[in-house]
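Bumping my old thread because nobody answered last time. Still need a sequence for this structure:
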């Protein structure tokens, strides 16, 4: 082989080797998931990013997601249409849902993976009302139970009336008197100054004729001589009031004692909230027409915090969770998906519904502040949702239990955690899903969730979710 041919051969081999590094390890899979509309917006973002990434997705898998509602997603993933087959071969290769399978409906060989959290906002359309309204859990439960039917109902008005709260004055009693060796020192606090009075017995005066009484001011580690006075039967010193100050009295280097004036914190009057004038408009409650994980989470909140009003256990179907018979007078309407209910509210004055924050923001709708267990009205935001979900618990199966009575002042109380549901049996498709879920949790959600109105999982919560991912396509 001559030199030119040898060089050409080596160059050709190098090109082949470099090209091989970008060739997929296996044939690409087309992965179609479906279910929860709550998580649809963030899932679309993550699927798009994953499909384009040659680093996270070297096999060029193509992931898509259909927003059909949690109930339809779970049904499409399970072995309903293909009895006896693995979930991997059904309508959806993975499902999305905020709720678990009900008893007797689950397939075999699957795992729940918490993928994303976020607030369920209470969004409404009320012409002429420009401020965001506030609702207590009791008022909210009564609205969705159909027992409050007008926007100017007394309960809603009470939630939206400014309240004056007076914090009473507090007095911290100091050390007003010290005595030693016949010398007594007292301090009396005035509005801007305090008066220190020194009295001494004759014996004490005689014993200290050649000595001076020294008064020092102590603030933290700082010591300053305020006054030096000659020893006598009586004397007084005026000292300025200073925050955190105490006063030392000594004679000839020997400490008589430390005086601390009373500290008075004055009463404080605070106006909480804002008075909003509400119209006598009829309320139209809008619920989901499809079986919905968002419905399940919202109804669960109502049942847990207001069980005497929302008396039924939660369900994916609003009509099944509703405490009674749904009114048929037009005051209750329904629509499919988070998109559908949000669109209805956008178009109809007087209407109110529950939806994931991203759908509310997309339509520039208002969302109510909800009173949490700490007694604070909190708006649905990503950070307020994170403060609430920090108190949630994820069990060994991946299912999440929320703490609806957390006293965290900044916590928004109505939230959901959406699960990716995937099969544990080894397969090419399931391996692709495992890769996508890892990308979702580790890369996409931390970068994109907050901007889209969702709460990314982090810390111990994230670690548990990744442990669930590890079970996919593994047994």
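Sorry it took so long. Here it is:
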């Amino acid at each position: 082989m001559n030199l030119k041919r040898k060089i050409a051969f080596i160059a050709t081999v190098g090109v082949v080797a470099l090209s091989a590094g970008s060739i997929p390890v296996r044939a690409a899979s087309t992965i179609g998931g479906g279910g929860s509309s709550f998580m649809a917006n963030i899932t679309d973002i993550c699927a798009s990013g994953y499909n384009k990434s040659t680093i996270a997705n070297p096999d060029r898998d193509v992931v898509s997601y259909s927003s059909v509602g949690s109930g339809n997603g779970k049904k499409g993933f399970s072995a309903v249409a293909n009895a006896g087959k693995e979930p991997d071969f059904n309508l959806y290769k993975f499902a999305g849902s905020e709720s678990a399978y009900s008893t007797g409906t689950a397939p075999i060989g699957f795992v729940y993976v918490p993928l994303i959290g976020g607030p369920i906002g209470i969004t409404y359309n009320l012409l002429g009302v420009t401020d965001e309204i506030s609702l207590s859990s009791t008022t909210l439960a009564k609205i969705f139970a159909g027992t409050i039917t007008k926007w100017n109902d007394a309960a809603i008005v009470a939630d939206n009336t400014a309240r004056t709260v007076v914090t009473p004055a507090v007095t911290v009693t100091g050390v007003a008197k010290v005595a030693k060796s016949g010398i007594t020192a007292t301090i009396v606090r005035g509005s801007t100054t305090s008066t220190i009075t020194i009295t001494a017995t004759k014996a004490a005066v005689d014993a200290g004729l050649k000595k001076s009484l020294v008064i020092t001011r102590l603030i933290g580690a700082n010591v300053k001589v305020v006054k030096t006075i000659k020893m006598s039967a009586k004397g007084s010193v005026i000292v300025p009031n200073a925050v955190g100050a105490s006063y030392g009295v000594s004679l000839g280097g020997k400490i008589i004692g430390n005086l601390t004036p009373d500290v008075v914190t004055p009463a404080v009057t605070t106006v909480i909230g804002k008075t909003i004038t509400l119209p006598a408009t009829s309320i139209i409650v809008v619920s989901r027409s499809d079986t919905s994980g968002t419905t399940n989470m919202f109804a669960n909140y109502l049942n847990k915090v207001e069980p005497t009003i929302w008396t039924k256990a939660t369900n994916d179907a609003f009509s099944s969770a509703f405490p009674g018979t749904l009114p048929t007078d037009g005051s209750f309407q329904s629509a499919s998906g988070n998109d559908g209910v949000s669109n209805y509210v956008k178009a109809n004055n007087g209407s109110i519904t529950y939806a994931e924050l991203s759908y509310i923001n997309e339509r520039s709708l208002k969302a109510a502040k909800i009173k949490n267990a700490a007694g604070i009205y909190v708006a649905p935001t990503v950070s307020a949702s994170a403060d609430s979900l920090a108190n949630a618990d994820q069990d060994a199966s991946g299912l999440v239990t929320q703490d609806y009575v957390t006293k965290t002042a900044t916590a928004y109380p109505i939230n959901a955690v959406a699960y990716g549901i995937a099969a544990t049996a080894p397969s090419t498709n399931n391996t692709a899903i495992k890769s996508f879920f890892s990308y979702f949790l580790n890369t996409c959600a931390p970068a994109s969730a907050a901007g889209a109105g969702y709460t990314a999982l982090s810390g111990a919560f994230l670690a548990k979710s990744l442990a669930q991912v590890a079970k996919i396509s593994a047994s």
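The chain has 13 helices and 26 strands. Let me know if any region looks off to you.
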